[in-house]
């Protein structure tokens, strides 16, 4: 049904999509499903029943074979996603002032002065916490690196008066999210969500100013064929009733949900933010990190099967017998005997008997050498790392490799991650921007004004923390207290709020100690010290 639905959606979207949109989308969905299978260890084996039997591969309850592969595709993806971590989102207010860096001898900050950007930052931090951002970003990052695309939908919860963010997977040929760009590939014109519930297929189309909710159903129609009417079923997209979606919902004459600002009637924009990996130019979709590794992993899997069978045939050889019957259950320690009784009873004697006995032979079919397979496996694994720019275990130079050598081997991976910081960071900033826009339109209390958001990432490079701390302390007098603490915060997990708290506590402690010292100094103001007169000293000396 999926291709039929795509064809109907193409007619529904009209000029937003081209003539071959449904066909390309179907192929894209098949590719995404393939990526997910490889990530889960379900690789294309294409083995015969005899090969499966020799390798002792069994089938699962769902009909799939148990995975018999070396899953390097998962390693390629997770080597990158493990280092994609957003540490926070900086919210910059329009009237935010440049904060002066306090030196070591600066006075304690005035508690009556407030940061103009603090209410906005508190709003952003609370929304991240409310939407469980730590788990959300893990789901989104895993999916976008694996599939090439991932999505976050932003909605409004009228009860909590907050924006709700949800991860939406890419379309895999059966369910998921799609986005439609303009002709230049810059602006999202619509987003399409396809999913199933209780055997029914539903479709939502999100436009910048409205939401269309549809259901794919089959209806009986009458078709005039050869003078008779026969019932024929056809697939149709029918609108769903949205009048009871939420309290105060606004519906267009065509039955669509209005998605506009109540105060201005302006469209709020498509409430779906796409995350793409390696999307360039006018491309509709991103690119999976395992794209170039799949064919190499297929070759490695075939090599692995050959290697295992070579080892099996070495340990459990196939015997070729001539003139002798060897029992199938032959095990070490058993004896195979040759008796003459049957030959004598058959009337064989003399030279004929000697010839028959000389012809009896047993040979073992020699298996191939396993060493070439091991060398080939090493080569294929190395190529997977080269093509995907992923440093793989066993190819990092050993335990004696220097830190600089390991750093150079990770240069390709670090380069990929830093590019992803820019692309994915922009998408997270768009999520916050859309959430701010939605709450400004629907919430009873609008959030503080915002100039922009800036996504902050954890450092992707593996470093020596002890050496890093030592280096930071050496330049502490040059960069000042706050910058020193901010740099140390990358090691200890301090954000800007924690750094400010440390500075405030240190300043308060310094003021307390100074006050305590003043109170311990004795008061000598009433003490009188007699001074000897010069004349008296002279007279006393003369006497």
Features:
single chain; 543 residues; 17 helices; alpha+beta; 3-stranded antiparallel beta sheet
Care to describe what's here?
InterPro entries: Portal_protein_SPP1_Gp6-like. This is Phage portal protein. Residues 97-121 are annotated as: Disordered. By secondary structure, the protein is an alpha+beta fold. Among the domains are: 1-97 and 116-294 and 414-455, no CATH class; 465-519. It is 42% helix and 18% strand. It has 17 helices and 13 strands. It has helices at residues 2-13, 21-39, 49-54, 72-81, 118-130, 133-147, 294-315, 341-345, 351-359, 371-388, 403-409, 411-442, 465-474, 476-479, 481-492, 496-520, 534-542, and strands at residues 86-92, 149-157, 162-168, 176-181, 188-197, 200-206, 210-225, 228-239, 257-258, 272-276, 318-322, 361-365, 452-457. The strands form four sheets. Strands 4, 5, 6, 7, 8 and 9 form a six-stranded antiparallel β-sheet that branches. Helix 7 runs antiparallel to helix 10 (371-388). The longest helix has 32 residues, at 411-442.
Largest sheet: 6 strands, antiparallel
| Average pLDDT rating | 81
User: Which term fits the overall shape?
Assistant: flat
Q: In angstroms, what separates the terminal alpha carbons?
A: 131 Å
Structural class: alpha+beta
| Secondary-structure element series | HHHHEHHEEEEEEEEEHEHHEHHHEHHHHH
- Whole-angstrom Rg: 38 Å
Enumerate the spans where pLDDT stays under 50 for 5 or more consecutive residues. 97-109, 224-231
| Count, helices | 17
Strand content range? 15-25%
- Helical coverage, percent range: 40-55%
Let me know the number of strands.
13
């Amino acid at each position: 049904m999926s291709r039929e639905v795509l064809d109907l959606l193409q007619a529904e979207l009209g000029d937003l999509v081209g003539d071959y949109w449904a066909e390309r989308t179907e192929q894209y969905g098949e590719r995404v499903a393939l990526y997910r299978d490889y990530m889960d260890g379900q690789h294309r084996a294409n083995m015969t029943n005899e090969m499966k039997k020799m390798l002792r591969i069994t089938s699962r309850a769902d009909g799939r074979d148990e995975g018999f592969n070396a899953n390097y595709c998962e390693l390629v993806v997770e080597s990158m996603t493990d280092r994609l971590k957003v540490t926070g989102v900086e919210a910059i207010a329009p009237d935010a002032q440049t904060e002066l860096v306090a030196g070591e001898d600066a006075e304690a900050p005035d508690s009556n002065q407030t940061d103009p950007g603090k209410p906005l930052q508190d709003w952003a931090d609370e929304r991240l916490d409310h939407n469980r951002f730590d788990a959300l970003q893990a789901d989104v990052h895993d999916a976008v690196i694996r599939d090439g695309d991932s999505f976050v939908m932003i909605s409004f919860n009228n009860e909590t008066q907050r924006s709700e963010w949800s991860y939406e997977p890419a379309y895999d040929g059966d369910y998921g999210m799609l986005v439609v760009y303009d002709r230049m590939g810059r602006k999202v014109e619509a987003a399409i969500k396809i999913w199933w519930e209780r055997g029914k297929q539903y479709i939502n189309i999100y436009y910048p100013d409205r939401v269309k909710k549809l259901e794919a159903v089959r209806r009986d129609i009458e078709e005039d064929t050869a003078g008779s009417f026969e019932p024929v079923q056809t697939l149709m997209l029918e609108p769903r009733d949205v009048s009871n979606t939420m309290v105060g919902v606004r519906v267009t004459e065509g039955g669509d949900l209005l998605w506009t600002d109540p105060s201005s009637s302006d469209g709020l924009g498509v409430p779906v933010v796409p995350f793409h990996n390696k999307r360039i130019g006018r491309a509709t979709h991103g690119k999976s990190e395992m794209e170039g590794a799949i064919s190499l992993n297929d070759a490695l899997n075939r090599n692995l099967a050959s290697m295992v069978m070579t080892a099996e045939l070495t340990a459990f050889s196939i015997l070729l017998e001539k003139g002798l019957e060897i029992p199938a259950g032959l095990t070490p320690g058993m004896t195979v005997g040759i008796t003459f009784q049957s030959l004598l009873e058959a009337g064989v004697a003399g030279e004929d008997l000697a010839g028959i006995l000389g012809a009896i032979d047993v040979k073992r079919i020699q298996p191939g050498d396993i060493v070439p397979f091991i060398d080939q496996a090493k080569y294929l694994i190395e190529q997977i790392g080269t093509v995907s720019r992923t440093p793989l275990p066993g190819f990092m130079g050993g335990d004696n490799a220097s830190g600089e050598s390991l750093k150079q081997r990770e240069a390709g991976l670090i380069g990929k991650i830093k590019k992803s910081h820019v692309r994915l960071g922009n998408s997270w900033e768009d999520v916050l921007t859309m959430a701010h826009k939605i709450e400004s339109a629907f919430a009873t209390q609008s959030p503080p004004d915002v100039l922009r958001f800036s996504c902050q990432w954890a450092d992707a490079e593996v470093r020596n923390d002890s050496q890093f701390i030592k280096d930071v302390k050496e330049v502490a007098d040059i960069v000042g207290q706050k910058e020193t603490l901010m740099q140390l915060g990358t090691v200890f997990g301090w954000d800007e709020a924690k750094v400010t708290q440390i500075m405030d506590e240190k300043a308060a402690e310094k003021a307390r100690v100074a006050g305590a010292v003043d109170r311990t100094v004795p008061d000598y103001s009433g003490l009188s010290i007699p001074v000897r007169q010069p004349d008296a000293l002279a007279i006393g000396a003369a006497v």
